[in-house]
Write a structure and sequence with these properties.
single chain, mainly alpha, about 0% strand, elongated, transmembrane helix, transmembrane
């Protein structure tokens, strides 16, 4: 397995983990009825935003890498 294949595997594993964590956070929030203090709600929004941004950047990187090859 060369380095490029390993990077693709790690990239997609990271994206899958990010999506799983987002769903887990949203499930817990729905289960609790979206109750929480304002700092908790803000931190959840920030964490989800960072995970979505990370996934989006990794996905764009993967698309750009495939176009170059």
């Amino acid at each position: 397995m060369d380095k490029n294949q390993l990077l693709h595997i790690v990239r997609y594993a990271t994206m899958s983990g990010n999506i799983l964590i987002i769903f887990w956070i949203l499930f817990n929030a729905m289960y609790e009825g979206f109750k929480g203090t304002l700092p908790e709600k803000i931190s959840f929004i920030v964490v989800i935003s960072l995970l979505v941004t990370n996934t989006w950047l990794l996905l764009n990187k993967a698309k750009n890498t495939q176009k170059l090859n």
